[in-house]
Amino acid sequence: MGKMRNALRAYALLGGTPIEIAEHLDQYHRHFGDGELVTLLVGVLTKDLSTFRFVLAGHCPPLLLGKSGAAFARIDEHIPPLGVNRSGAFIEHELQIERGSMLLLYTDGLAERRGESLDVGFERLRRTTERILPAYEAPQAIAALLEEQLEGGRPADDVAVLLLQRQADPSPELEFAVPARAGSLVDIRRAVARWLDDVGVPRVPSMEIVTAVSEASTNAIEHAYGPAGGTISIAGNRQDDIVEMRVRDTGGWRGSSREGRGNGLRLIRGLMDEVTIEVSDEGTAVLMRRRTGS
Amino acid sequence: VTSELADVAVDRRDGMVVATVSGEIDMSNTARVRQRIAGFVTPEDWAVVLDMSGLTFIDSAGLHGVSVLAELLEERRQQLFLSVPPGGSVARTLELVGLHSTPIYADRELAIAAAQANRPKSRPYPPDGQ
Lengths: 294, 130
Hints:
heterodimer, A: alpha+beta, five-stranded antiparallel sheet, four-stranded antiparallel sheet, 12 strands, 26% strand, B: alpha/beta, five-stranded mixed sheet
């Protein structure tokens, strides 16, 4: 099973639709599988977190918990697990995840109970989810769900649970930290762009703010730490039509005359209305303010 | 995400290299993108058109890579022509950072036409009869 999991990760990294990933894995299983049955859920969540597209093969359907209660994703045609001869192709399903909704992915060990029919088990899971999940934040919600569903006992089968909670209202504040590595830049841009979109910043100022934050982060990655590395934290705040961003490191900037560095600062100053650089013993913070005109 | 941030496709027409780059360029991949394009250019090519229409992001490190490419080409009497559609994030960054002597066109066909119009009548090297 570990082999299949690793192959799935590798195929997922190559990108593609859930169907393509599932087909690759199916091929892999035909060639290199040990004849075991493998149930599968492969899903891709859109960047704006609003849509989940997935493929099932012998796996239990995701459970969506929204305003009107909990419901299993409707699956009209069931595809058997990998390792069973299939006649048809994989089928892609789609779920819309509204703000404030939750999506629960799980293995059947969560629903099954010895001596009980599957239908009864699934209905019990659905009702438990409806009752338990809205009362907690994500980590505690999973713990409470497991506790309730397994009645504190050991499960008959192993249990894996994945819970996605989509925030109800966009937060006017953003804060996160990433390793000071070049590979983090793309994650920084994605996270900042998503937050700016959430708080209603229009496209043009948004892409300019994203560029400025990426540029300030590049400076921190290049200059703040030695090869042992460190962390950069990104914070954002929106009040009325002013967006304030802060990129902070805890290192000591080496003075650098490398070509292109001056361009970075020039770019930041060109894109933002106000830029302040605070250097202290604790590190360096670049504060940037921008009117968004909305 | 370990998949490539940018896609680079290179093609040759009439002794001219047309490189199409899409995705994003930042400090993590700028050297790789530049090497991919530079590695495709031979001494026989007289110009390179870099089509950045499909690029959604570039930063100062990425533009530095483009200017390094332009310099490398210039030393070999090969010229770089850029295609950058106006109004996007890339055009804005380019406007603020600037690239010294690299001509920029609004789309790919204009850049190719400009490169073709600039084609030298005879090659400067090797001299005839040598």
